[in-house]
Amino acid sequence: MDLQQLARLVSDKTGIPWGPRNVERALAAVFVSDNLWEIVHKSDEPLPAVSALVGLLLEEGMLRASSGGISLTEKGKAFCEGLGVFPFEDHTCPSCRGRGLGLDKFKRALECFYEIQRDRPEAAIRYDQGYVTPETTFARIALADERGDLRDKIVIVFGDDDLVALALAMTGLPRRVVVIEIDERIVEFERKAAEKLGLNFEVIMRDARLPLPQELLKRFDTFFTDPPETVEAMRVFVGRGISALKGVGGAGYFGLTRVESSLVKWRSVERLLLDMGVTITDIIHHFNEYVNWGYLEQMKAWELAPVKQFPSKNWYYSSMFRIEVVESVEVPNADVTGRDIYTDSESSTV
Which of 6, 37, 75, 79 has its CA 20 to 30 A from that of 224? Predict the structure, then answer.
């Protein structure tokens, strides 16, 4: 068996386009971790595909599973070495975690945010939620501030289990912050936090799948969103953000993983963005670090996992995209509540 054969078997089983290079990345991660979730993270490959590969290697005797996790057998090591597969190497800066940003200027706001977010609602699977670390939330703000997208600007946030709007209001940088959020628990939490801290930002309880009302169209300078990992969800949530922007020069921020998005899907998303009149100015690898959520055993990922083990550390990351409007394009503002925009063959956290 070679890399091409393994890739074909994985593709046949999952429907995810895979080639030898994808298998190689997953094997390189197996060399350095015994935890399935960390292997997915380090390989930068979709979880269903990595799970299928691990299952195949277990059947072939190239991997063994024990209470300690997953490990290569001697047969597996010889197989990898024969194919010229080397262990994954990590050269990430330990200080900035690869983001290239410092948070010292937000130290007081971050400390306050740490305290206030302790009582935040837990992530709910019905909304495909999963929130990022406090440092990630403020790194998003630092990035947007560095790009000139916050000071005295009007900002809108679509979906806010990450509490970006709360953090933005705490910094005092934007002139106005508006949140569109469907989860009444988060709506109530942010409204109470705003009252307690004396902050001024608007929280609107609304399903983002509904068309944006006229009063929110072409009113904002910057948007933030963190959509589910499907092309259709990107079309809707990022499209809503673009519709809310004033026009050319407006900026948007969102995350896209490799855990639930193959490079083939990335290309589809990038084409979609170009068709909506924007260009990608930044893609920062593994920028967004998500806290392990409590519904792991309810997820499709748990069902797919050939070895049932819990993560030993945070494992779900996404790259941060910054986009900027360069051409005015009329983006559809349709009602999509009757469509499933949350799942595809690469989804695993639903």
Answer: 37
Burial of residue 167 (CB within 10 Å: 0-12, 13-18, 19+) is buried
pLDDT in 10s for each residue of the chain, 350 residues: 899 999 999 999 999 999 999 999 999 999 999 999 999 999 999 999 999 999 999 999 999 998 789 999 999 999 999 999 999 999 999 999 999 999 999 999 999 999 999 999 999 999 989 999 999 999 999 999 999 999 999 999 999 999 999 999 999 999 999 999 999 999 999 999 999 999 989 999 999 999 999 999 999 999 999 999 999 999 999 999 999 999 999 999 999 999 999 999 999 999 999 999 999 999 999 999 999 999 999 999 999 999 999 999 999 999 999 999 999 999 999 999 999 999 999 999 98
With residues binned 3-state (H G I as helix, E B as strand, rest as coil), the percentages for the chain, rounded to 5, are 40, 15, 40
pTM of this prediction?
0.96
Nearest to 234 by CA among 207, 248, 263, 254: 254
Q: Which residue has the tokens 């942010």?
A: 190
User: Following CA atoms 340, 271, 226, 36 in sequence, which dihedral angle do they give, to the nearest 10 degrees?
Assistant: 80
Q: Which residue range is the domain that position 19 belongs to? A: 3-82
262 in the same domain as 173: yes
Residue 172 sits in the same domain as residue 232 = yes
Q: How far apart are CA 348 and CA 344, in angstroms?
A: 9
